[in-house]
Amino acid sequence: MNEPDRIAEYLQRLTPLARSNLLTELVRLEVCGAAMPGSTAILTKLRAEFRKSGQVHVRVANPSRYFFMPLEPLLVDGDPQHSNSGRILRGSLSPIWAWINQDLLPTMARDYESEMKKLIASDNQREARRVAGTFQTKVAKYLESTLGSPHAVEHARIKLATYTSSHSAYGDLIKMLSVLRSRDALSRFSDALPAALDKLDDARLCQVTESLDAFGKTNAEGLPFALALVAGRLKPCWQFVAKALLTEIYDIERALQARIDLLGQSDWGGRLATSDGCDRRLGGRGGKPVSRRSRPRSRIVPLARPSIPDRTLDQSGVGGRDAVSGELPLAGS
Looking at beta carbons, which pairs linking 88-93 to residues 24 or more positions away fall under 8 Å? Predict the structure, then answer.
């Protein structure tokens, strides 16, 4: 029996959970640069199995993923030319990370990656987050001092341009700095929000508005990102749009009905009544008189305003929102 067949036979003896755990551990060793001899074939086999079956296994975070973790709820995939003040393009993370490692803080970044690989290998999540938070603070403070002059800003733009052709990378770098400075407040704000805002009644809307007002008073810089967090919890947004449209339609209908009721009091209504009297005296079409009783009368019947239930429709309804994996495609993944 050759080597691939022996590997396949061994993997078939394991339970799906054991194969998932094995894949996680092998990936962790690979990230830390301590891959076992012969593990490449096992990794290839396991990855193909999970990809084919559609099963999800825990993906091991690398040092860059830990660093960008505060940005994760704000990341979007979109056109670099159409930015949002509360969103950061996912594609900007790789060039920013490369710039930090190669130009901004190469020595500190190297020490950070070395320490993080050991913590990832030992699966020490709590300490890894602490180390990542310390490095985030260092990067934020260094950026504040580095980008203090127009010359430094232009230099940063030129350096970032060597890692990406996107013109939004520098703007996303500034947004990243704002998020890192407000990361603790944004984390508390996010934890206080409901998991999903599937309906916005008066009480819920007032609660969210008050939370945003309180956040903005102490963290004005992070307010666009707080708004983005709220927008991310709204689902489905089309319900609120449909409700607003229906409200406007019925308001217009009531306004038209009121104008029609006052038709006889207007100059145009008087002329119309005069011409209508002439028409009755002269006769209708074909010269036949048309009696007042037999004449059809135009009347707009007001529509009853239906109640619009504040509830989330099932999947057969309109629209929907795609699930977000939350994985960050960064350099070194």
Answer: 88/172, 88/175, 88/176, 88/179, 89/166, 89/168, 89/172, 90/328, 90/329, 91/164, 91/166, 92/164, 92/166, 92/168, 92/169, 92/172, 92/173, 93/64, 93/68, 93/328, 93/329, 93/330
318: pLDDT strictly greater than 60 = no
Per-residue pLDDT tens digits for 153-197: 999 999 999 998 888 899 999 999 999 999 999 999 999 988 877
- Could you state, in order of their start, the residue ranges of all structural domains in the chain? 3-53, 61-181, 182-262
Q: What ranges make up the beta strands (E) of the chain?
A: 75-76, 88-89
Pairing between strand 75-76 and 88-89? parallel
Whether the Cβ atoms of residue 215 and residue 128 lie closer than 8 Å to each other: no
What sign for the dihedral angle of Cα 227, 233, 237, 239?
A: negative
- Tokens 């449909």, located at residue: 242
Q: Is the pTM of this model over 0.90?
A: no
Give the span between the Cα atoms of 331 and 136, in whole angstroms.
17
Instruction: Give the pLDDT band (50/70/90) at residue 132.
Output: very high
Under DSSP, the state recorded for 312 is -
Contact call for residues 127 and 119 (beta carbons, < 8 A): yes
Of 162, 164, 180, 59, whose CA–CA distance to 120 is shortest?
59
**Listed residue (144, 129, 145, 4) closest to 63, CA to CA:** 129
